[in-house]
Amino acid sequence: MPSPPNSQISDLNRPLTVQELLQKRGKEWDLEIVTGHDGLDSVISTAELNRPGLALAGYYEVFSAQRVQIIGLTESSFLKSLSPDARKFAIEKTLGFTIPCVIVTSGQEICTELFDTCKARSIPLLRTIQITSPFQSDLGHYLERRLAPSWTVHGVMMDVFGMGVLIRGKSGVGKSECGLELIERGHRLIADDVVVIRRVGKDELYAETPPNIGYHMEIRGIGIIDVELLFGVRAVREDAKLVLMITMEPWDPDKEYERLGLADRYTTLFDCRIPEYILPVEPGRNIAKLVEVAALTQRLEDQGINVAREFDQRIMNAIQKKAAPMRQFSAIDRLRRSMEQD
Q: Bridge partners of 208?
């Protein structure tokens, strides 16, 4: 898998436990644990979810026990329709597999048989007041991101005009200083020095703050600073989709840099094609402002607007219009001269 130059890559795939799910999204999703506290270390290994309706009805041939089990209104209504003995048998049989956790949605009342079985088998039983369909969608999206393959890269990750921009380059080239100036100009820091990259789906990359590092930056001559503490919560963001890469490098007078913007500027990062701008660094150049312009330029290109190509086309059209009368006059002149000779 191709990796960015001057970057260190390491696997960062940490297991997701039910405890972490509660800590990260419990308040946002109104999740509460009802019983099964001893099983909070259970690992959620897949982003796919399961509605155990068929399993509760006695069909286990394709029962996906390794998934988070969602009990919505349909499953609850079915359980209520059973006799106490049949309900106990169905629940114990279904929860006899190794299940990470059970989540009851829509704030429904939890039957005694489900509570007792989860408690006896240390299966975390959670409940939320949120409606099943939107909650299932949000949970699936979060699990897909959280459980995606991940690596760490060296660089500075910023949110510039709502676009995730990864600034990279050799150590000492001025990445952190550029990021700091962008923060002062109203943009937000996602991560400095160590950036976690997750590949979601086939061709989408998301960058986030690494665990235990937070929103700290290392500024040579000053030391470690806390961006959130200095500039407030407006200056930081937890994650963003990576849509642009900026490569900073010392100015090389013998190298020919892009001047017109007609050539495609892409690089490959973890099998994903990402637009890349190479910015040469030398005294007097405001790199932070150039990063802003690059982000806005890329946003226009994402909308199908390439200013350089449109400008080039206008110049070519003007040249062709100017050359057309000259070609016509030349042809007439040749004909007149031929008639005079006759």
A: 196, 239
